[in-house]
Structure formats: structure tokens, C-alpha cells
Amino acid sequence: MAVKRSLRLECSSCKEINYLTFKNSKKNPEKLALKKYCSRCRQHHIHNETKCK
Length: 53
Known about the structure:
Shape: elongated
Number of strands: 4
Oligomer: single chain
Strand content: over 45%
Low-confidence stretches: none
Largest sheet: 4 strands, antiparallel
Number of helices: 0
């Protein structure tokens, strides 16, 4: 069975957590990095994966 893991996406410039999502950790073991909109910076920046507690 697939192992879905919840994760948070953190802005690379201001370090604010803006998005929550899931991913299949068996299919994609590497860290996720997406270019998304940051409401604090009001620009598009790369958001990197961080662990949910």
C-alpha cells in the first residue's frame, strides 16, 4: 500500500509556511520544491518541503 505523508511547503525567501499537501514517499523520496505564490512576499518563490509535526 502507498505511504502518503503530509508535509508543509515553506517559502525559501521569508521562511513562512504557506501550503499543506500530501505526497507518496515511496514513489518520490526526494524533497519537493514547487514555485508557488507567497502571500507575505506577494511574489512567486520556490517553496521547499518541511515535515509536519
